[in-house]
Task: structure prediction
Amino acid sequence: MTHKSNPVGNEITCIMYGIKDAILNDSKKMIRVLVEAAKKEKFKILKSVSYAFKPHGFTAILLIQESHIAIHTYPEYNCLVFNLYSCRGPRDGRRALNFFKKAIGPKKINLRESRVKIDQNKK
Result:
């Protein structure tokens, strides 16, 4: 094996409330903001997938070399869920989250961030 990932990653899950309907229903803008957030963190984007639900709602996932960034909107509640995991290091993802929050403009957020440590003795 020639490469070893950092055994400590970072997971950020955030529920953002009070987002305008026009933003939550603009899937093109949401994808642009998500991609730009990944670039701010210098993540390498491998692929993106998205799906618009009827009558409303939207899911987008960026598969990144470091793992993933995903959002799911709930326009009926004026909110969305943002989830990011990176295996690059224990503080990774904060720049992406901060850029995304600023671009989307939630009034309130519930944030959970946790370090994910791989037990190297469990091989």
